[in-house]
Records
---
Amino acid sequence: MTRIWKHRLFWPIASLLGLIVINSVARPQFLSITMRDGELYGALINILRNSAPLMLVALGMTIVIATRGIDLSVGAVMAVSGAVALTVIDNAADPDNLGTVLGAVGLAVLVSLALGAWNGFLVAVLGIQPIIATLVLMLAGRGVALLITGGFITTVNSAPFSYIASGYLTVLPFAFFISVAAITLIALVERRTALGVLTEAVGINPEASRLAGVRARGIIWGAYIVSGVLAGVAGVIYASNIRAADANAAGLFIELYAILAVVLGGTSLMGGKFSIAGTVVGVLIIQTLESTILFLGVPSAQSPVFFAIVVVIVVMLQSSRVRRGFARLARLRQRRAPDGGPPPDVDPDLEPKRTEVAA
Amino acid sequence: MTGADVAQPLLELTGATVRFGADAALDDVSFRMFPGEVHSLMGENGAGKSTLIKAITGALPLDAGRLVLDGREVRFARPHDAQRAGIGTVYQEIELLPNLSVAENILLGREPRSRGVVNQRLMRRRAGEILADLGLDVDPASPLGMHSVAVQQLVAIARAISTDVRVLVLDEPTSSLDLDEVAELFRIIRELRARGVAILFVSHFLDQVYEICDRVTVLRDGKLVGEYLTRELLRIDLVNKMLGREAGEFKARERTFGEDADQPVFLSARGVGAGPGIAAADLDVGEGEVVGVAGLLGSGRTSLARAITGVAGLDAGIIRIEGRPVHLDSPRKAISLGVVYSSENRRVEGILGELSVLENITLAVQAQRGFWRRMRPARQRELAQSWVEALGIRPPDLDRPAGTLSGGNQQKVLLARLLALAPRVLVLDEPTRGIDVGAKVEIQNLVGELADNGLSVVFISAELEEVLRVGDRVAILRDGRVVETLPSHDVTVDSLLALVASPDDEQEG
């Protein structure tokens, strides 16, 4: 039993389950899933569907953070991507043509790849600090998106395009399959090849990795490209959902939610060791929380406060220092107990640190 | 000065025990420090030196035992309490703030104030007095970061003694200092000793311990071996007490190089210049030969190593491998040609502390294969296991984070990473710095064995004796040039010292 406590995904998963329990107690229909016309509906299905854009962005953010970087431009890349896709479809003779939509999405993703490559160039080649390098595009990107749409919110009516966010593949939403595909692809590439461990090496210490013959520059550059591409796909899903390219609202603040998801999943902002599964759980926590806020009817003006309180609680639960503090309090109480009692147990969290001191 | 046995100890620790879980890092140890005496704490890595220091300086609580300072029993809850009681500490890793001024660093937390505002002028004057008191010529207003590590170390000492310090703890203060700087530090230590300060001096360098210390306490496996007067304890006895066994003898190799002019040269550098460190250096490394590189700090030892391993780009000169000119523009390129480099800065440029021993060992091989061709996990384990056994890495746990190993074992992990590449030339920059005597001899022997198996080695060390012992030939570096290359058996430590510190040094100043 003690093993499970120590697992690094214990607290994220416990938090997620806690949220689900709270929800299902507050409204029993939360867990219910109904079948309509061969398609599944329900609150849980909505969470899976709506989490797709954040899931993609957070996966890319995980890789970038693992290299000791950060990508603030993801929201702006989403806006550009949506603008490109909609402009192509809008100007096409037949918006309902599947080829047109595929071409539009392809071009949007290609542009996003170029934007990611630009970020990577600034960071990996020019050596600009990631937060500054990606801030450039974060600020400029939405302007570019507005430029592409000519300053308007382009709207389209295209059945194949709408399908991306709202359609169903067999019994589940298509957007969910995009999420799963991205998670699988990233997890396979990072963990079945050596990219994951090389990325962690670069994140822990770029210079030591270079001396060991690791192509640190290429790995960092690649991370920003992956982040850009995933943000581009997220932008397409977002635009498909509202059937419009809204340069100002698309992906607004998503970089912050993505960073939050990565941290909730137990990946350190200091770079190095990362967890794809952790990020997936982090995204689901955030999405479940949003759904909770909606359901509980928290007035929209106060919902950020509610959101913040829950996040602080979750983050504190994960902080080993906070937990250690509680353990110490408990021990003090034990020590003050009359007639001494047995010697207090050693806090398992202290163990690794202690052996280090002794070595 | 050392008629101190009759005197009252200033600090006395009795029956000190510190436990980590089930293990005792310090087991019933007694330790005394006398005023006006320099005391050394000796022991291998993991013997309990750091733990004892931490117990004295309030960084760790005692599980059992008493600490008596000046006849009164004291108990420190945190380092601040120890400081207030007059115990100053300078740790191995300098804990100062490089972007503040020297004066601010010295008086941090005790800045002179007038009407609540820090009085900069008074602060600079007071810091200046402290520095002058130590005979240090450093501008108190200059930012600390612009000074060398040595000066920063001395500033750290100035900070420690600027309070009314009676016990001064110096943990490995000389590990990054060169000969002159060590002399300067020793001058200051003697000065403080004359003032009656009790000084604890911890160092891996036996020479320095014998030069400066009056008394030595030896620890082994967390237990006290004994307390001795330095002048009454032979070096060999000291080492035996530390190890608890006869120290591994360095095995002298059959020297076959240096005499034969026809030996095949594997790597040759001509007129190599890189950055400010090195200008027009020549170096030849034969197959299976160990070339020792000797030079003072600043003579370009590290720059030379980095230039011939592709770490730093060349400004001038040419490097040939088996006669063919090569362009080493990255460590990666050098590795692919069989030239590997182990940095002098193990922690910053070597070990990836959070990754496991296995990941650290397989990293370079994996990087060379490219990320797409991952080694099978079973193969990785097999490879790492074979090196852990071959080099005797302790503990032999492949999944342990490498950062938790002792310095000597981290160095072995780093060597394993490079040797797993099956290199042709191994360039070792200070491979034995900051590791204990036992591990040091092991690494020196390993270098000999590797050379016997045909590997060429460039062995750089600040310790001249070690360079002579390990190297078949010695290249002498001065001001960024290799001024001479001699067979090791033609040189003694004294004659090497004379060559390294050239006569024209004094004119340059």
---
Amino acid sequence: MYRQAKYDEPLIFELGKKGRRAHLSPRCDFSRDDIKIPENMKRITPPDLPELHEGEVMRHYVHLSQMNYCVDTNTYPLGSCTMKYNPKVNETIARSEKMMYLHPNQPVETVQGILEVLYDLQMSLGELAGLPHTTLQPPAGASGEYTGLALIKAYHVDNGETQRDEIIAPDSSHGTNPASTVLNGQKLIEIKSNEDGRVDIDALKAAVSDRTAGLMLTNPNTLGIFEKDIIEMSNTVRDAGGLLYYDGANFNAIVGKIRPGDMGYDVLHFNLHKTFATPHGGGGPGSGAVCCNDILEPYLPVPTVNHDMDKDYYYFDYDRPKSIGKVHGYHGNIAVALRAYAYIAALGEIGLKNTSDQAVLTANYAMRKMEKIDGLRLSHTSAIPRKHESVLEATPFLRNHDVSGMDIAKMLISRGLHAPTVYFPLIAHEALMMEPTENENKERIDQYVQVLEEEMDKARKDPDYAHQAPKWTSIGRVDDAYAIRNLTLSWKMMKEKQEE
Amino acid sequence: MGDNYAHPYLANSKKDIDEMLEYLGISSIEELYSDIPDEIRFKGQLKLPHYQSEFELMEAVKKKLSKNITTREVRSFLGGGVLDIYMPAIQDEILRRTEFYSAYTPYQAEASQGTLQSMFEYQSLICELVGMDVANCSLYDWATGVGEAALMASRITKRTKFVYTAAIAPNREDVLKNYVAGANLELEIVPYDETTGKMDIAKTKALLDDTVAGIYIENPNYFGIIEDELDEIIADAHAKGVRVVVGADMNSLALLKPPGEYGADIAIGEGQSIGGGPLNFGGPLLGILAMKYNKKESRQMPGRIVGKTITPNEGEVAYANTLQTREQHIKRERATSNICTNEALVALSCAIHLTLLGPQGYKETAETMYLSAHHVTKELDKIGVKRVFNSEFFNTFTLDLKIPKDKKQEFTQFMLDRKIFPGIPYSFDGENYDYIVTTSYLLCEKDLDDFVKAIGEWRK
């Protein structure tokens, strides 16, 4: 049985009283009378910050935390999101004083330890990618995509092929792919997937031209299906003068087993918060490390982290005239990179391979059990195994019982199990995208499928039960349209509305 | 490990695996990879470490990191946008709650009210600081914030030129250039007055016209100067339909007028220095972006935004992601930004910190920063060391040291021997280095005096 905590928790601004304090500032040795701010720039009205004592602050956030579902609550099989267990030792390591208190502008000789960690991580990622050059600067997957696409663009421009401004991506791609393409000033050419859910080779052949900058493709794709014709695709793009970008969001399927560099890719990004188990943080921070081959290396963001073997000295190289520039104010999300480094060190080569083995096995096991449920069907084809994730469609259930994929998701949440990713990819209908990861064991998956069956049984008898789900969460189903009609986006806007 | 698979991060034993294989009617996991052409399967050995126990891992990482020298082992006068701060014990206690840090983006609102309400509170706290109505749930950092703000101004005005102050941090300028390259925005730089360090009013006005989407101002600027003559520039910008973007030092806003009160349309900045987290060698950080609410223009904001709503069945207050049709997961190539993963946990951290400080703590820490900096300049003045610019400043000033290029390393070592990180070197002439010095609230009077003494010794 599952009951999420429920509090009528006021906003932090509605708590507390004037004059209370939750924290004392360090002593100041100087007279505050000496503060002289230009008259026209003085702050007159102080910000309306809360005034609470420490214990009340703790209670507020404990209440809020208890109204949150997380990886450590129960199964969290969000497809394409790779919700793994976040090893606790990595949280401890990331809080080392020798990590936290390093300023990015410190002299390089005072940061040799962290540079060594970053350098080693770059080497490990390059090894897994089969692409030897790495930057850790992109702070998220989408930033990594943008960086990789910018490398491709710079390469073509450098070769005098400025007309190559088209990025080809399948209609099954992650939403960030087209968005990053546009941010980079490239044109998106979307190609259709075939009946098997794979890229239609003929469509690809028709799409390439002397305007092709590259193909952006995750493999396995978002249906969890491996693009087995990748070599032919890669040759097609390469023959047309384009390059290949690998979206690493689905890398958990292939760690140590297949290397994008060996498939003909030129550049990829990793999501360290997916494949390497750093926390998702309720939306971030992540890290979008980018690896590339020799031809793209000159364009990597500045600075790169290098190692002088003779002196055993780590340093930043800013002298990179062909670099695309900077994609983050400093060197990226270093504390995230440190966690990923620790994760790789804990698992080693064998462990990492086993990770993908188990992720693929649990995904197929869950999929074959779920596809037997009346009302669900596997998208596209049932004939081939999936990799780390699969997409089931609830279209038969919607047609027969007026209960949608979203309703099914909400019923699962009622039972204390997080829903799969719903309504993605867009080429599937009533999609439930399931990625258990290696963090779920057999009995957890059995339990998940059993609960799913029970809930769908209830919905068959009473569709309204499904429409009103979830129950037992801190709140019932929310009205998204109301939020837009009555836009209230801050405490300030709330106060103004109350005054009206 | 090996074939028996037992590892703390792996859920299934050999027995579980055999049972699942049996269910699938296959004899090995390899069969699930059988559709992959053999020629691309990796069969070699990877150059990766051998797996380690937790104890071995801890020791190994500790040994590597021990080579670092931290801002707590020396006296740090480094700023530039990020700052050494003290995080109260309760703050990390909350951040270590797995309910927060191991949750995903709150797409399923019913099970994610904790994240959603705390993000609404974060947005609200930021609006209080900068004097705006709406903030997003975070960008990556201040630098990417400048880029996003420039693109947003361009979308709003449908203009393709963006003007920015020369008194911008070099790293933020680099990111800005990169961010707007794709959209082909034309960039123009406004010079600052060489004596005051403030934006040149006449030259700025001359650059603004009806082709300019926005103008970016830093206040205090990268050299630490308070821009207190902006009225004319901002009025001129608005008269020409130019959007005003102000990048503010968030600590300074305890003492300085918030951008929303002097005409800024968009405010950006760095949230690390107001509690987003430790320095962490420059990441993760927290990009702040806020604006005045405008029905049309606010829909051009990048990133996630949480709004207040209700549950129709029970009529209860609830929070949910809103205006999602701006975002990549729905709009794909027509999204306002490609951002998906942001810095949510850092935003939560910042919200907790501001709550702990309250109005009084927020003001006191800013006052200490101000007074520490002014104590240093007063003492340096006594020994004849001047600032590059003569204007008012908050906690950052540019020290006129003119250290020749070939002496820079020696100076760094000289200061390090005295346990000081003296500031960020900056060359105005390409030959000699002056130093941009910032005081946090963690330095005591003796630390400040030691800095003055060290500078004095160097000059001898």
